TrEMBL record:
Catalysed conversion reaction: [protein]-peptidylproline (omega=180) = [protein]-peptidylproline (omega=0)
The EC number(s) this enzyme carries: 5.2.1.8
UniProt family annotation: Belongs to the FKBP-type PPIase family.
PANTHER family: 39 KDA FK506-BINDING NUCLEAR PROTEIN (PTHR43811:SF19), FKBP-TYPE PEPTIDYL-PROLYL CIS-TRANS ISOMERASE FKPA (PTHR43811)
Protein name as it appears in the record: Peptidyl-prolyl cis-trans isomerase
The organism of origin for this protein: Niastella populi
Domain PPIase FKBP-type: 76-162
UniProt-listed InterPro entries: PPIase_dom_sf, PPIase_FKBP_dom
Gene3D superfamilies: 3.10.50.40
Enzyme class: isomerase
Top-level taxon: Bacteria
Length: 162
């Protein structure tokens, strides 16, 4: 009985320390459906885009510069980056420098950005399930800037993270 109580106390202590030190973001384990992955592959092939990596989730990417340093950002990292977001028809829907906690972003960013280090440069090809899915994204005036079920293309430079 004494060992059981001691074990329970150790568990509670470990769990509370772990909970306090984490940021609350975990892996969602989302995988894009096969038809969305095929749509991205079709886009890549029809645009003569080769040397592309593929994550198990169905995220496609190109790393142009891995960056420098010994570490990569994680879900709890505050990332500072510059990016251009486009639709597959070439329409730019967003271009900016920004900072945010990686775990609070779309799944494609959560999976892709940790592939580079500070100073790295990459392109992400994100199927809808790893972005906004069947939800339209509108600007402040109510105009749709990202149609539902869109493949997104992001050109990203990771300025810094901490």
């Amino acid at each position: 009985m004494r060992n059981l109580v001691w074990g329970f106390l150790c568990f509670v202590l470990f769990y509370s320390c772990k909970k306090e030190s984490g940021c609350g973001y975990g892996d969602h384990n989302i995988v894009a459906p096969a038809n969305e992955q095929q749509d991205v592959e079709t886009y890549l092939t029809s645009n003569n885009i080769y040397s592309v990596g593929k994550d198990a989730s169905g995220l496609y990417y190109q790393v142009f510069d891995h960056g420098e340093g010994n570490s990569n950002p994680g879900l709890c990292s505050q990332v500072e980056l510059t990016y251009t977001g486009k639709l597959t028809n070439g329409t730019v829907f967003e271009q900016k420098s920004t900072a945010f906690t990686l775990g609070s972003s779309i799944e494609g960013f959560r999976k892709g950005i940790p592939l580079i280090k500070k100073g790295g440069h990459m392109k992400l090809y994100i199927p809808p399930a790893l972005a906004y899915g069947s939800k339209e994204i509108k600007d402040e005036s109510g105009k749709v800037i990202i149609p539902a079920n869109s493949i997104l293309v992001f050109d990203i430079s990771l300025t810094s993270f901490y």
